[in-house]
Design a protein that fits this description.
Layout: E1 4-5, E2 15-16, H1 21-35, H2 37-45, E3 51-53, E4 59-61, H3 69-86, H4 91-97, H5 103-133, H6 143-159, H7 166-175, H8 182-191, H9 199-224
Antiparallel strand pairs: 1-2, 3-4
């Protein structure tokens, strides 16, 4: 999923999808500040329910009816910020923060959760990138089998939010073929506009050429008998 899903309304916060947490934090900061500076202040300094001491000196939560205007403002800012945070996450992540009464505490949990997810995704993407760069078709591998291996890397990369362009994939596949495919590669390069070629078109051409040339090779052998 990548990252930040856009919303058409400029009055709604950016949705956190788990990819670009750093970008989301900057946009969420700007959104909360534009919404109400009180909302942004509670993210920075936190918010706690106002307390008071009773006749015995025991500290208890202060009744909302006794709050000062400053305490009212701080509580309102916290409520606004907390509500917006609840609106930017999916149901699974919402379960992590739905019991928090402090917007700062909820925001801190989101940072820990998503920054951890981002690090795991980055590690997995680095592994996939290494696999892609080292990708080579083996001598005993068929076109179909090689196609499956390539698609496995593509699908896993897509699932982590990184989409590879067809142009990059086509060039990589052509470079990864064994020398026995040299003539086929030349034929494909001469017959197609490679920058515009789709990956499935390339593998389709490779299968067709391989099948056609294999028939010619077999007929040639039979003719020599």
């Amino acid at each position: 999923m990548d990252e930040i899903r856009e919303r058409n309304s400029t009055t709604r916060p950016p949705v956190l999808d788990g990819g670009n947490c750093g970008c989301w934090k900057s946009r969420m900061e700007a959104f909360l500040m534009s919404l109400d500076m009180r909302s942004w202040r509670v993210i920075i300094s936190g918010w706690e329910h106002p307390n008071e001491k009773d006749e015995t000196g025991k500290v208890t939560q202060k009744s909302e009816l006794k709050w000062t205007s400053e305490e009212d403002d701080a509580a309102l800012g916290n409520s606004h910020a907390l509500n917006e945070l609840f609106n930017v996450v999916d149901q699974n992540i919402f379960k992590l923060i739905n019991t928090y009464k402090s917007a700062k505490a909820a925001c801190d949990i989101l940072k820990v959760a998503y920054e951890g997810i981002s690090k795991v995704k980055m590690s997995r993407l680095q592994i996939l990138t290494s696999r892609f760069e080292a990708l080579q078709m083996t001598e005993d591998e068929t076109i179909v089998e090689f196609n499956v291996r390539v698609l496995d890397i593509i699908n896993k990369s897509d699932a982590l939010g990184k989409k590879m362009s067809d142009s990059k994939l086509v060039q990589k596949v052509l470079r990864s073929l064994p020398s026995r495919f040299n003539m086929k590669v030349t034929a494909i390069e001469e017959a197609n506009d490679l920058p515009k070629m789709k990956l499935d078109e390339l593998f389709g051409s490779l299968r067709t050429l391989n099948y056609t040339w294999e028939k010619v090779r077999v007929k040639g052998k039979l003719g020599l008998l």
